[in-house]
Specification:
The protein has 320 residues and is an alpha/beta fold. Helices cover 37% and strands 17% of the residues.
Length: 320
Amino acid sequence: MANSDLAAVEPLHPILAEGVQARRAKPAFPDIGPEAAKRLFEEMQANPEGLPAVAEVEALTVAGAEGPLEARLYRPDAAALPPLVVYFHGGGFVVGSFATHDRNARRIANAAGALVVSVNYRLAPEFPFPAGADDAYAAVVDLAGRAAALGADPDRIFIAGDSAGATLAIAAALSGRDGRGPSLAGIIAFYPVTDMTAIGAGVSYEAFGDGSVGLSEADMIWFRDLYVPDPADWNDPRCSPLTVELADLAQFPPALVVTAAYDVLAEDGALFAARLRSAGVATSYLHVEGVNHGFIGAPNPPPATLATYQAVADWMASLG
């Protein structure tokens, strides 16, 4: 991958640029601490206007690594037996919930005709690594075993997530390798964190680390240090998937990796997609122009957001 491949070609869409300015008018998470950051993020994301309609939304309890977890099920308006997508929200492993990422789940359900279950895994700093990764794997195992009972196709189970949630989805797939976990049809990783050891390094951090287009280097350091306080754990593949041995990726499910042009994590995603391909994994890579970190959850979505969901649906359908 050449550095020039990640250079932004189109300007940041005005809708997303307005969102950046609105966010910059509020306190930075590192300045207010985790408790206040959790509350602020829930408040910022609480915008029920214009939510995409789905056939049904219901509360669900799923298994976590050390006890039950709350989840939310989104049932599509589809007559056929839908695929199951187990979804993990973003938020730096510290903030967020299925409520903050309600739009993401609804859009996947509608675009792909999928039954989506969005899981509230345990968050740092109260529950540092490996709590989130362990919860993600436990939830995938539990929901895979219940797919038919939930009305989904047990032979078409996908896992997905954005940002930190994408990293947890990858961790769940790695934990289930060598036949330990359920068979997965595929994994969808929207702008994943893939190298905790390299935060601040590389072309994407150099271009956008100041936070002028959204997520900043300071944000990422704060999130990492709360979630993985022991630097000895930064090289764990469940934190930094780029460190996994190629042989351990041999049974990784087909993957779709999505990155945003204006994002400190763009290079993380691009390098991980390249590593998957080096391991012989069937990998699709989509680098989206004119958008920034978090664009798939934009309340007023630019065309690229909706086109990305359609690309996800087409990719899922291509796998049968």
